[in-house]
């Protein structure tokens, strides 16, 4: 408590110093001009602002998480961190802007998978970025997908549900939040791993309308993130399968797919990236700062309240994870698009 | 009786001086945010959440609630005074609101909007207290097929919005529907009419369209470089609604409350849809429907009431089911979560005291916004005293910043300019704008719910014979066909009932 | 039948209650009283718009066919656009028929709005807005908006230079800081580094 206060004071002092020094540095930078002034070693320069691009509108969970991280990162680095929303096209607008920004450490971005992974894989989206356009710095959240039924459903556990769906292919309907969303990939993975077949209903409006249709008995199975279930606080839901490696701390009674004998590991991953081509020392500094901030108990606690479990990965592990996800999605994508038509 | 006790307890804990102060501050900030171009209730509330993090949960939610009401009302102010909707939900308010301003009745328009909002909000909150549980599950009965029926009914109201020419009204509606189809389609995710631009993948931004089609086209039509052909200073005559205004507005407020309250129960129907439906209902059922579009008080009272009733009743699905029924409610849900409160059914079992304090604070927030806004009407309408050339410049700031901040993208500024030209052409050719606005909002919802329904039924159209869905569709077809049956006597439609 | 009754009702009451409504026109748009307007210009615009919409209808209909009318479970991405563009085409045809009839009966142009549109004003406003939008990303919001406002205030509205300066500054630099500092909503900064560092 005390230490955070001191840190806040310190950073305020540094900020002030930065502001007064601003006019000087401005002249200096103006004189040196050129797009990439040779300032790598003294990054982050006092008085400059780090833009944290969020590819979603204010209020979404990517945005709220970023707005929790930004002030903590500000303290850690001693410069302003400004959240800039660039929403649109399921994140594509913001990701494109991020990929095209200068790799000088003053622009970073919050990304959410699967969207950031899938967008470049679908040629019809016309995305101009790929996985290589970004330098993943840190993963913050892994929010597993779950399968849930209503409390009064006849399916007590995952096995019963899968067996039924195998015997009656396409009879049980399940929600997704649209084409190529996390839920869509999750269910395609489930179908592939179990041989069951579901009737997927795409609620492109989002998780809330999927949940409404599920609770209103218009659809049999709810598919969504752990956080959707926790946030809703509903008593009518029975989660019968979590697609994570371990049980979710928020839903301790819900079995994982692995426990039930199916190899499915799907979820939404959120993290922070910089445009590729960042100088190595800047990348290291950013990675360290983000690592500290993400694992800061206060930040973890605030995210837990939002139903977002922290699952930190450093840069190298995050790159591995991302690549693995990309391979998996490349495999599933053709089947998914064929099903839709 | 239990409920009453709980509610009184809620009032007891909400009615502290500190909380009242927060409600007042929230209301002021909210109104300012609403008046500022672009930043509407959703973004405004989301951005201001960090302000409230250090407070205790009751105060924080009270303040955010007040910010939310305030920003909604702020959006109305610019709609009425500047013909530029500050947010999507007050889009239809410009039609009659601005005409009232032109007639010198700006104060009356703002007054009735404040009163209507208060009535709608208070009644809806009372509904939340009395019958949250059964109403919440009633809303769930509206599945995709029923939703589709409702959209058919809503779109059919466009014929009621027709002016002299049914053909032009229908054309306007069809154009709105076609514009609504731009973007990634909900069926297989194929980009439609995007011309390869990623900016269009999400479709044409509704706010940019309405800001251009109403706000900019007004500047183009009625103003010249030196001065307006119509003086707006008349806007200062008649500050408050008189008894006659109230008597005329009362039925519209009643209808608005019912429409707003019931649509708030249905997840997925936003405040914008609600206010449009209310306007459509007014143009179909109001005794003075022939005057709509020329500054009829019903055209302001109905949608503004519906909008606020919706905002409050949309809390019912949130509290009973944990479903955020509209984007704004989703933001409020985020605020609850950040305070460590899960706003679903468990809220009443785990944090009953906070829950009731929040409900009490909804009543208080509504009242404070009314008390605050009525005296301020004079301040707002004095904007119209600003010399014409300067006012024009200010409105243009609103147009540009308002459309830029939708997506923080200059692209939407260009969309706004384009639709300013469209608005000009439409006005010149006497093509009504309201049908376009209506279908632009309802079109995507209709297509989406149709798709969802057919995915559930696996392509079987008989899913639309479910009782509610069928009822809506039949009423919609009836509404759509009645004027067409009269097509042989167009003279009757043109007769001025008061000539 | 019932509808007619309702109409009669509103006729009876309507007159009494809104005495100050000068022209309770039946139209939803700004439709002031008819006055013989520039009917040649109106006709030309009408024809142009009709032609434009008709072409749009044909193009979208063809495009929709490419998108696919039907998929596994019902309507595909092209379904709605296809039938809507056909409806649009038919409506435009109906409109053309109506306006031809109107010309024959000599009523053409009657419906045009009464305000004489000041075309130089319209063009100036639109062009200046386009320039503003184009420059916003390059010069940043503050400089672009300042120039835009100063142009409209000092040159077009003929305000004194200091009034123009003050309002232009408030609308550019002032608005920028209200949005970034108080609301943390970012408006565009200049693309040029040297302007950027001094906060523009």
From TrEMBL, chain A:
<protein>
    <submittedName>
        <fullName>Tripartite tricarboxylate transporter substrate binding protein</fullName>
    </submittedName>
</protein>
<dbReference type="InterPro" id="IPR042100">
    <property type="entry name" value="Bug_dom1"/>
</dbReference>
<comment type="similarity">
    <text>Belongs to the UPF0065 (bug) family.</text>
</comment>
<feature type="signal peptide">
    <location>
        <begin position="1"/>
        <end position="28"/>
    </location>
</feature>
<keyword id="KW-0732">Signal</keyword>
<dbReference type="InterPro" id="IPR005064">
    <property type="entry name" value="BUG"/>
</dbReference>
<dbReference type="Pfam" id="PF03401">
    <property type="entry name" value="TctC"/>
</dbReference>
TrEMBL record, chain B:
<feature type="transmembrane region" description="Helical">
    <location>
        <begin position="108"/>
        <end position="132"/>
    </location>
</feature>
<feature type="transmembrane region" description="Helical">
    <location>
        <begin position="20"/>
        <end position="53"/>
    </location>
</feature>
<feature type="transmembrane region" description="Helical">
    <location>
        <begin position="144"/>
        <end position="162"/>
    </location>
</feature>
<feature type="transmembrane region" description="Helical">
    <location>
        <begin position="389"/>
        <end position="407"/>
    </location>
</feature>
<keyword id="KW-0472">Membrane</keyword>
<feature type="transmembrane region" description="Helical">
    <location>
        <begin position="463"/>
        <end position="485"/>
    </location>
</feature>
<feature type="transmembrane region" description="Helical">
    <location>
        <begin position="169"/>
        <end position="188"/>
    </location>
</feature>
<feature type="domain" description="DUF112">
    <location>
        <begin position="20"/>
        <end position="438"/>
    </location>
</feature>
<feature type="transmembrane region" description="Helical">
    <location>
        <begin position="356"/>
        <end position="377"/>
    </location>
</feature>
<feature type="transmembrane region" description="Helical">
    <location>
        <begin position="200"/>
        <end position="221"/>
    </location>
</feature>
<feature type="transmembrane region" description="Helical">
    <location>
        <begin position="413"/>
        <end position="442"/>
    </location>
</feature>
<dbReference type="Pfam" id="PF01970">
    <property type="entry name" value="TctA"/>
</dbReference>
<dbReference type="InterPro" id="IPR002823">
    <property type="entry name" value="DUF112_TM"/>
</dbReference>
<feature type="transmembrane region" description="Helical">
    <location>
        <begin position="314"/>
        <end position="336"/>
    </location>
</feature>
<keyword id="KW-0812">Transmembrane</keyword>
TrEMBL record, chain C:
<dbReference type="InterPro" id="IPR009936">
    <property type="entry name" value="DUF1468"/>
</dbReference>
<feature type="transmembrane region" description="Helical">
    <location>
        <begin position="51"/>
        <end position="73"/>
    </location>
</feature>
<feature type="region of interest" description="Disordered">
    <location>
        <begin position="1"/>
        <end position="35"/>
    </location>
</feature>
<feature type="transmembrane region" description="Helical">
    <location>
        <begin position="79"/>
        <end position="97"/>
    </location>
</feature>
<keyword id="KW-0812">Transmembrane</keyword>
<dbReference type="Pfam" id="PF07331">
    <property type="entry name" value="TctB"/>
</dbReference>
<protein>
    <submittedName>
        <fullName>Tripartite tricarboxylate transporter TctB family protein</fullName>
    </submittedName>
</protein>
<feature type="transmembrane region" description="Helical">
    <location>
        <begin position="122"/>
        <end position="155"/>
    </location>
</feature>
<feature type="transmembrane region" description="Helical">
    <location>
        <begin position="161"/>
        <end position="183"/>
    </location>
</feature>
<keyword id="KW-0472">Membrane</keyword>
<feature type="domain" description="DUF1468">
    <location>
        <begin position="51"/>
        <end position="188"/>
    </location>
</feature>
<keyword id="KW-1133">Transmembrane helix</keyword>
């Amino acid at each position: 408590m005390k230490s955070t206060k001191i840190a806040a004071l310190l950073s305020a002092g540094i900020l002030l110093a930065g502001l007064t020094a601003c006019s000087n540095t401005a002249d200096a930078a103006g004189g040196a001009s050129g797009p990439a002034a040779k300032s790598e070693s003294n990054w982050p320069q006092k008085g400059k602002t780090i833009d944290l691009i969020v590819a979603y509108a204010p209020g979404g969970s990517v945005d709220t998480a970023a707005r929790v991280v930004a002030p903590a990162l500000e303290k850690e680095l001693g410069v302003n961190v400004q959240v800039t929303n660039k929403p649109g096209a399921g994140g594509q607008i913001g990701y494109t802007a991020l990929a095209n920004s200068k790799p000088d450490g003053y622009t970073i971005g919050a990304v959410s998978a699967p969207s950031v992974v899938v967008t470049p894989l679908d040629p019809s989206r016309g995305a101009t970025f790929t996985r290589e356009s970004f330098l993943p710095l840190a993963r913050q959240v892994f929010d597993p997908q779950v399968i849930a039924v209503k409390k009064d459903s006849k399916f007590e556990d995952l096995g019963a549900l899968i067996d039924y769906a195998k015997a009656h292919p396409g009879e049980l309907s399940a929600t997704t939040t649209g084409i190529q969303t996390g839920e869509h990939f999750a269910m395609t993975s489930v179908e592939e791993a179990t041989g069951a077949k579901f009737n997927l209903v795409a609620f492109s409006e989002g998780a809330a309308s999927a949940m409404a249709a599920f609770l209103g008995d218009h659809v049999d199975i709810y598919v969504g993130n752990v956080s959707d279930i926790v946030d809703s606080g509903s008593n009518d839901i029975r989660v019968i399968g979590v697609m994570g490696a371990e049980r979710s701390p928020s839903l301790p009674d819900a079995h994982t797919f692995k426990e039930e004998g199916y190899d499915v590991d799907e979820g939404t991953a959120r993290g922070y990236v910089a445009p590729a081509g960042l100088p190595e020392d800047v990348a290291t500094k950013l990675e360290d700062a983000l690592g500290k901030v993400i694992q800061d108990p206060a930040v973890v606690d605030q995210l837990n309240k939002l139903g977002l479990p922290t699952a930190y990965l450093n840069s190298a592990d995050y790159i591995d994870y991302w690549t693995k996800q990309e391979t998996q999605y490349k495999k599933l994508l053709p089947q998914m698009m064929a099903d839709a038509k | 009786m239990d409920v009453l006790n709980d509610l009184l307890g809620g009032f007891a804990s909400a009615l502290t001086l500190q909380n009242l102060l927060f409600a007042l501050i929230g209301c002021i900030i909210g109104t300012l945010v609403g008046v500022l171009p672009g930043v509407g209730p959703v973004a405004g509330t989301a951005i201001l959440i960090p302000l409230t993090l250090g407070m205790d949960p009751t105060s924080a939610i009270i303040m955010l609630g007040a910010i939310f009401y305030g920003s909604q009302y702020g959006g109305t102010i610019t709609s009425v005074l500047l013909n530029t909707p500050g947010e999507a939900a007050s889009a239809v308010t410009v039609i009659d609101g601005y005409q009232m301003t032109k007639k010198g009745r700006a104060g009356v328009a703002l007054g009735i909007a404040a009163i209507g909002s208060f009535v709608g909000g208070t009644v809806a909150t009372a509904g939340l207290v009395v019958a949250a549980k059964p109403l919440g599950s009633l809303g769930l009965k509206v599945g995709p097929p029923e939703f589709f029926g409702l959209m058919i009914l809503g779109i059919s109201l466009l014929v009621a919005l027709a002016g002299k020419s049914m053909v032009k009204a229908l054309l306007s509606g069809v154009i709105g529907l076609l514009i609504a189809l731009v973007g990634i389609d909900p069926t297989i995710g194929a980009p439609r009419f995007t011309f390869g631009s990623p900016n269009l993948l999400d479709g044409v931004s509704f706010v940019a369209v309405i800001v251009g089609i109403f706000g900019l086209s007004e500047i183009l039509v009625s103003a010249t470089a030196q001065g307006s052909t119509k003086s707006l200073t008349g806007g200062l005559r008649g500050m408050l609604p008189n008894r006659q205004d109230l008597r005329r507005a009362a039925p519209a407020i009643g209808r608005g409350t019912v429409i707003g309250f019931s649509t708030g129960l249905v997840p997925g129907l936003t405040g914008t849809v609600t206010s449009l439906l209310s306007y459509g209902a007014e143009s179909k059922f109001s005794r003075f429907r022939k005057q709509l579009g020329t500054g009829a008080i019903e055209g302001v009272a109905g949608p503004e009431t519906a909008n606020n009733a919706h905002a409050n009743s949309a809390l019912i699905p949130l509290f009973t089911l944990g479903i955020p029924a509209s984007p704004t409610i989703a933001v409020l849900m985020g605020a609850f979560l950040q305070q460590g409160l899960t706003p679903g059914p468990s809220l009443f079992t785990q944090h009953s005291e906070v829950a009731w304090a929040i409900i009490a604070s909804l009543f208080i927030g509504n009242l404070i916004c009314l008390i605050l806004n009525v005296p301020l009407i004079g301040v707002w309408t004095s904007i119209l005293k600003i010399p014409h050339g300067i006012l024009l410049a200010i409105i243009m700031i609103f147009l540009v910043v308002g459309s830029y901040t939708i997506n923080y993208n200059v692209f939407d500024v260009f969309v706004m300019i384009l639709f300013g030209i469209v608005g000009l052409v439409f006005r010149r050719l006497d093509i009504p704008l309201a049908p376009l606005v209506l279908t632009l909002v309802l079109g995507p919802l209709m297509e989406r719910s149709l798709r969802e329904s057919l995915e559930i039924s696996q392509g079987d159209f008989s899913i639309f014979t479910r009782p509610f869905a069928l009822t809506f569709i039949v009423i919609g077809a009836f509404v759509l066909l009645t004027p067409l049956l009269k097509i042989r006597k167009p003279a009757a439609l043109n007769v001025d009932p008061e000539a | 039948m019932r509808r007619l009754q309702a109409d009669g009702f509103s006729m009876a009451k309507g007159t009494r209650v809104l005495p100050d409504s000068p022209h309770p026109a039946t139209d939803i748009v700004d439709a002031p009283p008819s006055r013989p307007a520039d009917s040649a210009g109106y006709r030309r615009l009408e024809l142009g718009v009709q032609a434009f919409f008709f072409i749009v209808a044909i193009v979208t209909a063809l495009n929709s066919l490419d998108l696919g009318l039907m998929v596994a479970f019902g309507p595909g991405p092209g379904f709605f656009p296809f039938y809507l563009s056909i409806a649009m085409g038919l409506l435009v045809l109906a409109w053309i028929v109506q306006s031809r009839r109107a010309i024959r009966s000599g009523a053409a142009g009657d419906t045009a709005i009464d305000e004489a549109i000041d075309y130089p004003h319209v063009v100036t406003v639109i062009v200046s807005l386009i320039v503003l939008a184009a420059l916003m990303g390059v010069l940043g919001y503050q400089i672009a908006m300042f120039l835009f406002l100063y142009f409209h205030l000092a040159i077009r509205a003929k305000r004194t230079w200091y009034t123009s300066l003050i309002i232009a500054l408030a609308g550019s630099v002032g608005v920028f800081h209200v949005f970034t500092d108080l609301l943390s909503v970012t408006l565009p900064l200049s693309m040029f580094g040297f302007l950027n560092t001094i906060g523009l």
